Amino acid sequence: MSKSIIILGIESSCDDTSAAIIKNGRVLSNIISSQKVHEQYGGVVPELASRAHQKNIIPVINQAIKKAKINKNQISAVAFTRGPGLLGSLLVGISFAKSFALAMNIPIIDVNHMQAHILAHFIKEIDGKSNSPNFPFLCLTVSGGHTQIVKVTEYLNFELMGETLDDAAGEAFDKSAKLLGLPYPGGPLIDKYAKDGNHKTFSFGEPKVDGLNFSFSGLKTSILYFIKNKTKQNPNFITENLNDICASIQHSIVNILIKKIEKAVKETNIYNVAIAGGVSANSELRKQLKSKEDSHNWKTYIPNFSYCTDNAAMIAITGHYKYLNNQFCDQKITAKARLSV
Ligand code: KG4
Ligand code: ZN
Description:
With 341 residues, this protein is an alpha/beta fold.
């Protein structure tokens, strides 16, 4: 029998410190420590993030190894996020990965965070269950820092078809939430309040952007002026209408995303459509995408909630496929704040 491939994945690109163990593509553990320190600032504070990563990384790795019930000597390679992300945060994960690999005499694998969000679809649960897309497929990757439409033809073959020209979809959620006085990250809260609201109550302008690119900055400005005007007339406007405002904002953002992915399907004739990244946890986006199965004959792939937001299992699964291709990297490798898919 061939030797098992056991990958330790490490993710530290933003405000989550995460470590995971994947054995032959199956997840044995996926530990995530989310940093609460940023809530009060309305966004991630880079210095605080890297300090928290330093504090969390060893306990998180120890827990991942313990939960996976493996011995660290069994690990075949260490996969880590090289970028894109916050430099100070990335450095913590990279430095740990390099030293651990040196000490254990095993190879290291650099992982692109945006590719990993997409490959999260190939993570198998311990019982072997998965709902992996068939190639080729289109992936709408929507996170706090990115909004992209990517054509995926093989495990490690990605073609960027469109992306945001300004804010990311997650930023549109978070910045709108901030205007409503909600803490960071506001995306999940908008989703929660929207459940009891009517999305037809308020409407915001739709951006006109050519091709498969996106823009969310106009929407942000229109929400800003809308809130300003309404609260001038009624200081309690937000509290009295929170559910409807959230439902209307969510509907506008999801509408922009769905229209572009529909356009991408028309242009490519690829009917396998996946979503990935933190915003793919959004219930309205998930619902609308799913409805395309019946109305448009699409085959849709919606990730398990635990693999939508940042996690190390997605880094480890990408590491697994790079390991199979012998795509290792050198100890001289450095972090990259910007890295294209
Ligand atoms: O992928 P991710 O964890 O981190 C980045 O790589 O950026 O995405 C985080 C983003 C945040 O903007 C957060 O508000 C958003 O994902 N998010 C959501 C939901 N859950 C997370 N946005 C809308 N609805 C949700 N349920
Ligand atoms: Zn991410």
